[in-house]
Amino acid sequence: VFVCNNGVLSFKEGVRTFTPSPFPLELQGQIIAPFWADVDTTNGGNVFFRKSTSSQLLRTVAQDVGKAFLEFQNFQPTWVLVATWDQVAVFGETTGKRRNTFQ
Hints:
- With 103 residues, the chain is α+β, with helices and mostly antiparallel strands.
- 14% of the residues lie in helices and 31% in strands.
């Protein structure tokens, strides 16, 4: 899994573009885009990720996946990847006033 600065998780290869392009992207593999944007962390903000085996989080994920994908109603994860883009700015933002936090 590649955690991209611009709000994307990708598989097989990282996303190298800085400006979000319309979907589908020409990549080898699929992506998850919680917030596909032109994020710039050079003016502050951070991108974190962690593996979790929290039973409460695993239950929540299992329920969410089961509701969103009927074919996976019996999905039982053993771990999850949590990625957080914390107080990141859009490219060109210099005032520090316009920030986004998302997972």
